């Protein structure tokens, strides 16, 4: 029996993952833990997928609606999608099988701002939540729960669900205890109060989840690592993008808009975000803070080097090696890391007050600075917008980053008109590609278009974009935001038909 379960009543509820999965009913709504590959339940989802497959083999219907914090893993999202066990998924995913079934129309997916999901579930828009399946790193004697490597929406799922299944994962470091800040002060309007965070280091909650032990129907013990996908070594484009950003930070300090400690950083997921942290570690900046969603490898390095003094997030998203290293030294980070509930880590009130520098990846931007983060060629879901919108709209400066081309140059990531809009031109201050950085602040639409073509477009597409813009200036109905409406999305159609956006 695990030494991590200190509550006698809950110790008596330990059972196998198969037995626990039997509590989940067909057609019900389930809230599971998990955020960018960390802190998701490791055993019950796989057991549930097997149960669903067996039910389907008997000719019975069995699907659930699934809410999480964000993306999980192949053994959770992948297994449940593979089993055709999901009717509805929110709010973010990145698993290839889940993505394929969303795009084939077999799974309904609602892509939503990560800070919004809990309140929409509290408000009943998705119906009642029957079961919560939550990974924790320990159960304390009084029944409170030590969170694991992500906090996400777990507090809300534990509060809302009729019944709770806990997974206690002894792979998670015991030194995580004390690192989390779970806020119980959120209320619905008109009872809302200000959220009293003035500095990313402020703590306003408690390190544990509350959970009525009588609601817990099963406790499952696991010893399994998080998903921990490896990062590719930074490529030339990522390094160039990161360098443009660090130069820009120097420029803003010189103009007195940021001080020597810049402003709290939010950095999205992926290799570019890691490269940005690596360039910051090489720079002269020290004592910075991060108020962000996810702690990646680069952020731990920045904490080690003193580049960052503190990082506040809702989850880890570490490579395998870094996760092992972190687990061996978690105590060292106790005063430098805070994991919060995602409605607080991503809260627009806090993003605006703290003056966040928000850096997020994108698929494409258009001449006017509208950004598509989610839809390939306008119709195919990639991952979801995640927290990018929570941060971008309220950021002090919102940056969107991408290589200038994709698919070996067949796609220009700067297009006349984006094929789907996640972030409007009003929320996008700076666009960065390896070619350069376009500072759009204070520019009118036509000025923005000229700046983006000049600084961000790949040389292979510059002339084509300039030609489009020149003809739009001549033939557009209105000249505030000039477009050729019959041609604005022709680049995407050309790619679909010929495999390239290049004109013949
Ligand atoms: O596909 O690997 O098959 O070639 O898209 O592109 O360049 O590797 O970029 O991994 O940084 O992802 C927007 C998806 C960028 C990510 C997105 C193809 C490209 C490649 C990935 P291949 P890259 P990244 C807070 C922030 C939304 C969530 C978010 C994302 C693949 O940043 O999910 O911001 N963002 N969260 O070839 C067609 C284009 C393309 C394209 C690239 N224009 N058209 N395909 N690709 N550009 C954190 C959280 O919320 C959790």
TrEMBL record:
Q: What is this protein called?
A: Acetyl-CoA hydrolase/transferase family protein
Task: Tell me which InterPro entries the record gives.
Answer: AcetylCoA_hyd_C, AcetylCoA_hyd_C_sf, ActCoA_hydro, ActCoA_hydro_N, NagB/RpiA_transferase-like, Succinate_CoA_transferase
Q: Which Pfam families is this protein grouped with? A: AcetylCoA_hyd_C, AcetylCoA_hydro
Q: Which organism is it from?
A: Micrococcus lylae
Keyword Hydrolase on entry: yes
Q: What keywords would UniProt list here?
A: Hydrolase
- Please report which protein family the annotation says this sequence is part of: Belongs to the acetyl-CoA hydrolase/transferase family.
**Which Gene3D superfamilies does the entry link to?**
4-hydroxybutyrate coenzyme like domains, Acetyl-CoA hydrolase/transferase C-terminal domain, Glutaconate Coenzyme A-transferase
Instruction: List, for all copies, the residue spans of the domain called Acetyl-CoA hydrolase/transferase N-terminal.
Output: 12-221
> Which SUPFAM superfamilies does this entry report, sorted A to Z?
NagB/RpiA/CoA transferase-like
Q: Does the keyword Metal-binding apply?
A: no
Residue ranges annotated for the Acetyl-CoA hydrolase/transferase C-terminal domain, each copy included: 334-468
- What PANTHER family would the database entry show? ACETYL-COA HYDROLASE (PTHR43609:SF1)
Question: What molecular function terms (GO) are annotated for this protein?
Answer: hydrolase activity
């Amino acid at each position: 029996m695990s030494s991590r379960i200190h509550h006698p009543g809950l110790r008596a509820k330990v059972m196998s993952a198969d037995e626990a999965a039997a509590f989940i009913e067909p057609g019900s709504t389930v809230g599971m833990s998990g955020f960018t590959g960390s802190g998701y339940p490791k055993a019950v989802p796989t057991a549930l997928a097997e149960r669903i497959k067996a039910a389907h083999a008997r000719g019975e219907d069995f699907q659930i609606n699934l809410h999480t914090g964000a993306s999980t893993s192949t053994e959770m999202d992948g297994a449940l999608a593979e089993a055709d066990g999901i009717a509805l998924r929110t709010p973010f995913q990145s698993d290839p099988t889940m993505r394929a079934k969303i795009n084939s129309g077999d799974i309904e997916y609602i892509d939503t701002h990560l800070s919004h999901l809990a309140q929409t579930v509290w408000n009943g828009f998705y119906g009642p939540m029957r079961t919560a399946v939550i990974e924790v790193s320990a159960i304390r004697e009084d029944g409170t729960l030590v969170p694991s490597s992500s906090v996400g929406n777990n507090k809300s799922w534990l509060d809302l669900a009729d019944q709770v299944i806990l997974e206690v994962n002894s792979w998670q470091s015991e030194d995580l205890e004390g690192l989390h800040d779970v806020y119980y002060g959120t209320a619905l309007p008109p009872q809302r109060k200000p959220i009293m965070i003035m500095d990313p280091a402020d703590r306003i909650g408690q390190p544990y989840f509350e959970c009525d032990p009588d609601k817990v129907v099963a406790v499952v013990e696991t010893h399994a690592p998080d998903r921990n996908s490896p990062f590719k070594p930074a490529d030339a484009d990522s390094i160039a993008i990161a360098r443009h950003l660090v130069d820009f930070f120097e420029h803003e300090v010189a103009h007195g808009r940021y001080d020597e400690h810049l402003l709290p950083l939010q950095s999205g997921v992926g290799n570019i975000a890691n490269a940005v942290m690596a360039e910051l570690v090489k720079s002269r900046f020290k004592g910075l803070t991060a108020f962000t969603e996810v702690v990646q490898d680069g952020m731990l390095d920045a904490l080690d080097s003193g580049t960052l003094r503190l990082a506040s997030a809702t989850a880890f998203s570490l490579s395998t090696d870094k996760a092992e290293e972190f687990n061996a030294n978690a105590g060292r980070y106790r005063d430098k890391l805070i994991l919060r509930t995602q409605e607080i880590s991503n809260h627009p009130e806090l993003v605006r007050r703290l003056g966040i520098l928000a850096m997020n990846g994108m698929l494409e931007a258009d001449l006017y600075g509208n950004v598509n983060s989610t839809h390939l060629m306008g119709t195919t879901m990639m991952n979801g917008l995640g927290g990018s919108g929570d941060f971008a709209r309220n950021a002090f400066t919102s940056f969107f980053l991408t290589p200038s081309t994709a698919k070996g140059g067949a796609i220009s990531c700067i297009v006349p008109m984006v094929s789907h809009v996640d972030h409007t031109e009003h929320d996008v201050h700076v666009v960065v590609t390896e070619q350069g950085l376009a500072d759009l602040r204070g520019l009118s639409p036509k000025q923005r278009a000229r700046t983006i073509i000049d600084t961000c477009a790949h040389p292979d597409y510059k002339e084509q974009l300039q030609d489009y813009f020149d003809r739009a200036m001549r033939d557009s109905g209105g000249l505030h935001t000039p477009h050729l409406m019959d041609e604005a999305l022709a680049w995407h159609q050309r790619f679909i038909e010929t495999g390239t956006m290049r004109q013949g």
